[in-house]
Design a protein that fits this description.
Polysaccharide biosynthesis protein; membrane; alpha/beta; cell membrane; transmembrane; LPS_length_determ_N
Length: 465
């Protein structure tokens, strides 16, 4: 796993080098979101408001909200609507209610057309008001239900009795009859006042009389998520998943990126780093099939996590680095000999660096000179999946040339084992890196304009194996 911190520069590099892929995935996500909106038809939501007169506590309002969405109310509304294509269970999922400010219950109904949504919310609101009035006017407790009604009947019967007694009394002929009629009228008045106070004290009377505040307004737009929202959400989701996928892949990447790690994995000494002019075409695969064209079109034929090439250098500076590597290699060898320049297959930067090392070895003095000459190299490309190095013959030793950030420790260990199987010891490691090029300046020695050969001076020309 890479220990590099995920920084904004990493995200910027993803956006810069993978913008074609990200744009393609965003379009795919938009199409998926649009297809989802086609599979699931649009929904419309209408709302009706019910006013609850009187004083209500918050918990009482929440109870009324539960009653408004109860199966009893919704089933009665469904029976009244008579929709055969919607079941009662599905209809209950489409009805919601909430308590608003001012003792108002807002009932919302969702349907596939604006008209049906309006009718659903209106019908549920009406069924809720009727059911609430029934609860307030007729409790399930028989004693509580019959007590006030029985009392009213008794009062009415008493009033009729008082009327009969008043009519039976002598109408104003004696003092006693006048007093009796006056007492009876006072008794009638007292009974009426008592019943009025009883009605005012009844909490059910206070909280009855819920009213629907007009019909629900016909919806003019789709309920969320709309088709546009699904399309935009699909594009954004695919875009974010692509970016996160790149970040996770970079975080889980086990390829070695530093020279000490590479040298330790190969079990040899680092002879130095060399520069290769950056050429994006050199990173592209040579396969010209349809899949390769698609990869090239999406911009995924090259890696996005390769570091940005270092500052511009010229050819003279690069050749100095190559000569220094050859000098260190010569110092490690007891005598001039032929070596294999082992390059992992697919590492174009390393292959070009190995060819440049061959060219530098060609320009060195002969082995009989006081400088003893540079070693003679032959470039060999090996597969990292099943590496195979030629057996020891005229060459005795291997110089591994590769670029950083492309190979894991297991793959490099496989190359070392392949060299050992062929009878070659790894005498050194050279790490190649891309740089930005600039015009050549004078270097004090002529540049080698000839195309570098894969084999150098000695018996035969050799070749890649």
């Amino acid at each position: 796993m890479s220990d590099d911190t995920i920084r904004l520069v990493t995200i910027g590099r993803i956006l810069r080098r993978r913008w074609r892929l990200l744009a393609f995935l965003a379009v795919v996500g938009a199409l998926v979101g649009y297809g989802t909106s086609v599979v699931f038809p649009p929904r419309y939501t209408a709302s009706a408001s019910v006013l609850l007169p009187g004083q209500w506590e918050e918990r009482e309002l929440l109870t009324q909200v539960d009653i408004a969405t109860s199966s009893t109310v919704v089933d009665r509304a469904a029976a009244k609507l008579g929709w055969t294509d919607v079941s009662g269970a599905e209809l209950r999922e489409r009805v919601t209610a909430e308590a608003a400010d001012g003792n108002i219950i807002k009932i919302s109904g969702t349907a596939d057309t604006p008209g049906r949504a309006q009718r659903l919310s209106d019908q549920v609101a009406q069924r809720f008001v009727a059911f609430a009035a029934r609860i307030a006017g007729g409790s399930t407790d028989s004693e509580a239900a019959t007590g006030p009604e029985a009392l009213r009947k008794k009062v009415e019967e008493t009033n009729r009795r008082i009327t009969d007694l008043a009519n039976a009394a002598d109408p104003g002929r004696t003092v006693e009859s006048v007093q009796a009629r006056t007492a009876l009228e006072k008794l009638r008045t007292s009974l009426e006042e008592a019943m009025t106070k009883l009605d005012e004290a009844d909490p059910a009377t206070d909280k009855a009389g819920m009213v629907v505040m007009g019909p629900a307004a016909r919806p003019t737009g789709e309920a969320p998520p709309t088709r546009m929202q699904l399309t935009v959400a699909g594009a954004l989701l695919f875009f974010l998943l692509a970016v996160i996928g790149h970040l996770v892949a970079a975080r889980m990447d086990r390829r070695l990126r530093t020279e000490p790690e590479i040298a330790a994995a190969l079990g040899s000494a680092l002879l130095g780093t060399v520069d290769v002019p950056d050429d994006r075409r050199a990173h592209r695969p040579e396969d010209g099939g349809p899949w390769a064209r698609i990869r090239r079109l999406l911009g995924i034929d090259t890696r996005w996590d390769t570091p940005t090439p270092l500052g511009s250098v010229d050819e003279a500076d690069r050749r100095i680095r190559y000569r220094r590597v050859c000098s260190r290699l010569r110092e490690q060898l007891p005598a001039p000999r032929r070596l294999l320049a082992v390059v992992p297959d697919g590492d174009e930067i390393a292959r070009r660096a190995a060819e440049q090392l061959v060219a530098e070895a060609e320009t060195d003095p002969s082995p009989s000179s006081p400088g003893r000459g540079y070693p003679m190299l032959r470039v060999v490309t090996v597969s990292v999946d099943r590496p195979t190095v030629p057996d020891r013959d005229t060459e005795s030793g291997a110089l591994v040339v590769l670029s950083a950030g492309r190979w894991t420790a297991e793959e490099l260990a496989g190359i070392t084992e392949a060299c050992a199987d062929g009878g070659h010891g790894v005498v050194g490691v050279v790490v190649a890196g891309p740089v930005r090029d600039r015009p050549t300046r004078s270097a004090g020695r002529p540049a080698d304009n000839a195309t570098p050969a894969l084999a150098v001076r000695g018996e035969g020309t050799g070749g890649s194996a």
